[in-house]
Design goal:
The structure is a homodimer. Chain A is built from eleven helices and no strands. By secondary structure, chain A is mainly alpha-helical. Chain A has two domains: about 45 residues, Homeodomain-like (Arc Repressor Mutant, subunit A); about 140 residues, Tetracycline Repressor, domain 2. Helices cover about 75% and strands about 0% of the residues of chain A. Chains A and B meet through helix 7, helix 8, helix 9, helix 10 and helix 11 of A and helix 7, helix 8, helix 9, helix 10 and helix 11 of B. The structure holds a DNA duplex.
DNA sequence: CCACATCTTAACTCCGCGGTCAAAAACAGG
DNA sequence: CCTGTTTTTGACCGCGGAGTTAAGATGTGG
């Protein structure tokens, strides 16, 4: 509908992502979000009926990128290619949606009390697909006999950490913010670690679309 | 002093760990902690002056185990031994202090606003030591040319994840709670991944105390 | 049994924040 | 410029939770 509506909703969601990520749901005050968005508080309630509602919108804003990241599992069957592309995509989400990413992680950490059931189901479905695929690689002798679940947990954790624990990472690296090349290094090194660590056969053969 | 005091403080810290881990600092109500501890609310204020104070006590309760986990770096110089022991110790912390672990992670995620400066410094110091040691292994050709920081981030993330994202892990594995052997598998597989992935030379020679 | 410290309890205050409202302003279309 | 709709705004309400208080109970040492 109205251009104003769309614009202000975006402003608010952006501000909300940052503050929810920074402080967590309960500690976040609507008025802070309003201030950061440059709008009076009742506007937030005008565009989003409640705090809960706004929060859900923030979460939903990162769902699509997250689901998209698993695409490599559906587009290819070569373990080296899929795992590399998956890791790159996951790190890219951490890099490009750091706030929403953090909000999502926090949500999961607390038992996903606000995550709509259908989204949780969709992610679960993806997980099953992915671990089946990994299992099939193991069965075909294309990689070591790893447990697919644990492998996924490690990949999730290692890629998410660049968004979730940015404070720690800043402190350790001494940089206020990681540069593009830092993210590239992270992705490259993690890929190397996973591929080599799982004994993945790097046959460039099976590169089917 | 009083045995009662000591006992009740422990009760409260235990209850507080669980609730803070579950809900986060801001969402936690003192009365819930009191209820779980089986005490009236003012008792919590009697033993701990404030919510903030109690929260800090919870955090401090996990600092020691966390710092201890880095011992392997000081006790040995063989990369395979150190990394394996480190990973085992880290996962053990996640397993044995799941609540406090989660509270700590949440604290770091939000920029460590309550973490005493001296503790942050101590952890930073450990990190420097650890990454120096890894760098020395690289320099001596005992492992691939990995970036020590990124390697540490991956290890931290992958081990912490078993405490922080227990909900997700439960859902994926279909188990309400991981068994001892699940943790063992996790540690074993992660060790394998890291050692092989970093091309660590498994010479059982350098096992000096 | 007394005196003193420790601990428990119910009732209370205070204030900050989620959420509301009604009126004013800005906008849109004819 | 008039009319209806969308958006903005400041003032307001009510609740719930952090923290307090002061009196009572229980413990402890002589």
């Amino acid at each position: 509908m109205s251009r104003i509506r769309e614009h202000n909703r975006e402003l608010i969601i952006q501000a909300a992502s940052e503050i929810f990520a920074d402080q967590g749901y309960a500690a976040t005050k609507i008025i802070e979000i309003a201030n950061r968005a440059g709008l009076p508080k009742p506007n937030v309630y005008y565009y989003f009926k409640s705090k809960e509602n706004l929060y859900r919108s923030v979460i939903e804003s990162v769902i699509d990128p997250l689901l998209q990241a698993a695409q490599p599992f559906y587009e290819d069957d070569d373990p080296a290619t899929v795992l590399e592309q998956y890791i790159i995509a996951k790190i890219k989400v951490s890099q490009q949606h750091p706030h929403a990413s953090k909000v999502f992680a926090s949500e999961i950490m607390h038992g996903a009390p606000h995550l709509p059931e259908d989204i949780a189901d969709k992610m679960m479905e993806q997980t099953i697909q992915s671990s089946n695929k990994i299992q099939s690689w193991v069965d075909r002798g294309l990689m070591d006999r790893v447990d697919p679940h644990h492998l996924l947990f490690t990949i999730w954790a290692a890629t998410q950490t660049y968004a979730d624990f940015d404070w720690q990472i800043s402190r350790v690296t001494g940089k206020d913010k990681l540069s593009q090349s830092d993210y590239d290094t992270a992705a490259q090194q993690l890929t190397q670690l996973i591929l080599k660590g799982c004994g993945v056969q790097t046959s460039k053969a099976a590169k089917a679309g």
